[in-house]
Amino acid sequence: MTLSAHELATLFRLRTASVLTDVEMPHVIALQEAGVVQVIMSEDGDAALALTVDGKVLLRMLGAEQVGSRSYPN
């Protein structure tokens, strides 16, 4: 999988918390298609992004997550 700089930046932002964002943005759609983020809809209809297990593994492989700080599956 090849991710753009915008896609990687979004992925790094999601490593500590969900981010409310426009799920229609191309880089967000690409992350969903890559299986590294998922969209979670609130009861109010707001969308939040969350890392999948694959997304957390990718961040760890990139050195953004410490091996001892695994908090998944989520």
Total beta strand runs: 3
Order of helical and strand elements = HEHEEH
Percent range for β-strand residues: 15-25%
Question: Number of helix segments?
Answer: 3
Strand order of the largest sheet: 1-3-2
The radius of gyration over CA amounts to 12 Å
Summarize the structure.
This is DUF421 domain-containing protein. By secondary structure, the chain is an alpha+beta fold.
Write the layout of secondary structure elements.
Blueprint: H1 5-13, E1 19-20, H2 26-34, E2 37-41, E3 47-51, H3 53-61
Antiparallel strand pairs: 1-3, 2-3
Helix pairs in contact: 1-2
Protein name: DUF421 domain-containing protein
Keywords:
3 helices, about 70 residues, 3 strands, about 15% strand, single chain, globular, three-stranded antiparallel sheet, alpha+beta
Descriptive account of the structure:
- The chain is 36% helix and 16% strand.
- The protein is of the alpha+beta class.
- The chain has one domain.
- A hairpin with a 5-residue loop joins strand 2 and strand 3.
- Helix 1 (5-13) crosses helix 2 (26-34).
- The mean pLDDT is 81.
- This is DUF421 domain-containing protein.
- It comes from Paraburkholderia terrae.
